[in-house]
Amino acid sequence: MSVSCKTLIEMMERLAPVGLAEHWDNVGLLVGSPDQMVSKVLVTLDVTLPVARYAAQHGYELIISHHPVIFKALTSIRTDTPQGEIMAALLKHSIAVYSAHTNLDIAAGGVNDALAGRLQLQQIEPLQITNEDKLVKIVVYTPSSHVEQVREALCEAGAGHIGNYSHCTFQTAGTGTFLPLAGTKPFLGEIGQLEYAAESRLETIVPQSLSKQVLSAMLLAHPYEEAAYDVYPLANSGVRQGLGRVGRLNRPREFQDFINDVKSALGIAHVTVAGNVNKVIEKVALCGGSGGSLIGYAVAAGADVLITGDIKYHEAQEAVAKGLIVVDAGHFATEQPVIAVLVEYLQNCSREAGWEIAIHSDVINQDVFARY
């Protein structure tokens, strides 16, 4: 069985809404059509030429990548250049590419939560707040016989989350009136006759970024030809999201023990360290990929150490001067844990929806850096 690329995009954007992405980023469907049918999906950090060729050889119709396959504006597509060769391979074999970059870094359950989970951190919070999702309240009136059907559709689409509680709704019973006019096909009543219907007012809250998909799911489940509903903006604070994470170890560790655990968790043999390695480690900041810009935020959060990649010389000097240990574990190693998380998420979506499509993690990409 195959599903449309658009359907898989909806699942990705439920996890990592594109509105979370930084303004300079390029995310979304970057190659292909949303109407393209997909039966095999390959999940990867980077769309390199070997990855594109592997996807073509093994019949993948969609690649989901973290790093955008098109980042800077293209002024030409020359097949005698590395970028042009990749694009040619993708287009020749009708392989679509969807990229979730900084939105996946920021999103709950994305790159940084995957890394925090791999390091078994507790009491995890964003390190730099970049977004606070606004909340809206959706109120819909439905016949009492279908209130559970509509409620379930709302909640399964992402509505009804308050703190660590899900499926939060409120309903009250009442009587609705309507008069079906000529040309209508009423679920209840007769054309030209005023109908009094036993209805329920069902209300719930939802992040504004998910409101369109929640409303679509509600309308699909609603039995009426024309559903009556309202959407109210709320002053309540929404979920705060951002770059990096900070959390605590389950117990304080000597630095050498801690760093051995980090290397084991990430499957690497070496890291680069700057700072006082005689320090006991309890509070850990992290950022998958390039996190040198978060040194100030790690210090402000009271972290003992920042784990990230791509640390520059002067960034390391700044961290040491501020009493923070920095551990450069590599761009690849600190982002790679999200691939397994994405595969599991999409496989669960496939199972629940009965798609029966193949979703695999990339086995081609390796860290471009080798340490000797």
Task: Please provide a written account of the structure.
With about 375 residues, this protein is of the alpha/beta class. Helices cover about 30% and strands about 30% of the residues. It has helices at about 5-15, 50-55, 80-90, 100-105, 110-120, 145-155, 210-220, 255-265, 295-300, 315-320, 330-335, 335-355; strands at about 5, 30, 35-40, 40-45, 60-65, 95-100, 120-130, 135-145, 170-180, 195-205, 230-235, 240-255, 270-275, 280-290, 305-310, 325-330, 360. The strands form four sheets. Strands 7-12-14-15-16-13 form a six-stranded mixed β-sheet. Helix 2 links the parallel strand 4 and strand 5. The longest helix has 17 residues, at about 335-355. The radius of gyration is 24 Å and the shape is globular.
Summarize the structure.
This protein has 372 residues and is an alpha/beta fold. It has helices at residues 5-15, 49-57, 82-92, 102-106, 111-118, 147-156, 211-221, 255-266, 295-300, 313-321, 331-335, 337-353; strands at 3-4, 28-31, 37-38, 40-44, 62-65, 96-99, 122-132, 135-143, 170-178, 195-207, 228-233, 240-254, 272-274, 280-290, 305-309, 325-328, 358-361.
Protein traits:
alpha/beta; 17 strands; 372 residues
Please render the helix and strand layout as text.
Blueprint: E1 3-4, H1 5-15, E2 28-31, E3 37-38, E4 40-44, H2 49-57, E5 62-65, H3 82-92, E6 96-99, H4 102-106, H5 111-118, E7 122-132, E8 135-143, H6 147-156, E9 170-178, E10 195-207, H7 211-221, E11 228-233, E12 240-254, H8 255-266, E13 272-274, E14 280-290, H9 295-300, E15 305-309, H10 313-321, E16 325-328, H11 331-335, H12 337-353, E17 358-361
Parallel strand pairs: 4-5, 4-17, 5-6, 14-15, 15-16
Antiparallel strand pairs: 1-3, 2-6, 7-12, 8-10, 8-11, 9-10, 12-14, 13-16
